[in-house]
Amino acid sequence: MASSREAASIGRFDYIIVGAGSGGCVLANRLSAIPNARVLLLEAGGSDNRLWVHVPVGYLYTMGNRAVDWCFKTEPEPGLNGRSLDYPRGKVLGGCSSINGMIYMRGQARDYDVWRQMGNPGWGWDDVLPYFLKSERHYGPADAYHGVAGELRVEQQRLQWPVLDAVREAAAELGIPPTSDFNRGDNEGAGYFAVNQRNGIRWNARKAFLDPVRNRTTLRIETGAEVERILIDEGMATGIVFSKSGQTFRAEVSGEIVLAAGAIGTPKLLELSGVGAGAVLSQYGIAVKHELPGVGENLQDHLQIRTVFGVTGARTLNDVSAGWLGKLRIAADYALRRRGPMAMAPSQLGIFTRSSPHYDRANIEYHVQPLSLDAFGQPLHRFPALTVSVCNLRPESRGATHIRSNVAREPPKIQPNYLSTESDRVVAVDSIRHARKLMATERLRGYRPIELKPGPSITTEEQLARAAGDIATTIFHPVATARMGRDARAVVAPDLTVHGIAGLSIADASVMPTIPSGNTHAAVTMIAEKAADLIRARRRD
């Protein structure tokens, strides 16, 4: 590794943003609007100009593709019966917004009110709602909950599956009301997810926020630039060192360095730079620049229990796509109308409800899909079936991510510790039972559902808990590894500045104190919007 003195300088900038994902693209847009500011945006990946990034069903081909995905893996998980999971993270312009499920979901108002109650003023629902609205270009009319002038397109899905309509009606039998909008502060109900698309094409953060400002003289974008460490001198961040095309460079900063590398990338970079728990850093010969024991800790993620039911008399993607004729029809529908299965988000129908009366608000989320397969990347089954996934919205299990060496290119350790608490195991068992109850409703009887996973013979608490560990997988929502707060384990203050390091802030999913009750992309966009205002307020002209 080259020293900072050996690295060639590319100059001094007012702001250096690390990561051109959901948060970094927003920050680049907003900060480069400052007159005479010099903004540097660094992205380890390359261009997102790839067919399967933009065709919605292409998530099947981007996750696990090293051209656009870091291709991380978890450590073996005791709660998953020793399994290690693939852990996709975007390594491309747009970051995870270029490979994610495109679902636009804010969570629940209470999520953000809890953040405020945890000692983070300015982060309650009423505080953050204006930032959600600022970015949004919603398909409906503007109102108190939706904006129509922002850059992030939010549209309805361009498909129709009668069997999913039936599942939505079946949910009503269980007392779960239909809803046309999950984003008004209380997402309890059943309905179709809104998606970040434009006319059936993925609308990622690059298209939304970066393209409109690419030609600004205040913005410099470097792709293929992997940041190795932050330069810190006497408690102040002074620049960064990055590698590109086999060479090492450095950039100095006069304002702030903003980390937007995500809940895995940000703690890794902090630790490589000497910021973290001394016990972790000393293992790899890294000098402690600043002791912050919370770096990499508090990892939270959504784990989905993927139950599968075979059905009869229903049209599903399994049978629609069978054979070359079916595939040609699907391709033609998309080519001519931008509709049909190729326009599908990974999940179409959502249900938010309570796994038991113990909860006073929705604590589980369904992702119902008109398809089934053994695992992502595997072929669809040859028979009609539904995948009825259920996840615990607010898990109590806490994991960690830390470096495994002092080499920047070495992937980090990721240990989510799924199902490590009794309450999470109870919710997992209850989730399987709830899915069975849904599929046993009168509305679905005509489809004669047959449980394939985990299987009807699995009935006892012990069997169900083990089955959950066998069939569960991540929904790719890691957060909270550099959480905000004022206590000794917090990494950033409520203004998103890193405790004890001047000129360094974070604006990505890592700062969340707790995981939102839903998908996380919209929340990261909101955090970056608010961060941009906070950073501008600190600016000294």
From TrEMBL:
Q: Name one GO molecular function term.
A: flavin adenine dinucleotide binding
Identify the residues that the record assigns to the Glucose-methanol-choline oxidoreductase N-terminal domain, covering every copy.
262-276
Q: Which UniProt keywords apply?
A: FAD, Flavoprotein
InterPro entries the record matches: FAD/NAD-bd_sf, GMC_OxRdtase, GMC_OxRdtase_N, GMC_OxRtase_C
Q: Which Gene3D superfamilies match?
A: FAD/NAD(P)-binding domain (3.50.50.60), Glucose Oxidase, domain 3 (3.30.560.10)
Query: Per its Swiss-Prot or TrEMBL entry, what cofactor is needed?
Result: FAD
Question: Which positions in this protein are listed as binding FAD?
Answer: 92, 227
Q: Does the keyword Methyltransferase apply?
A: no
What does the similarity note say? Answer: Belongs to the GMC oxidoreductase family.
Q: What is this protein called?
A: GMC family oxidoreductase N-terminal domain-containing protein
Q: Which organism is it from?
A: Rhodopseudomonas palustris
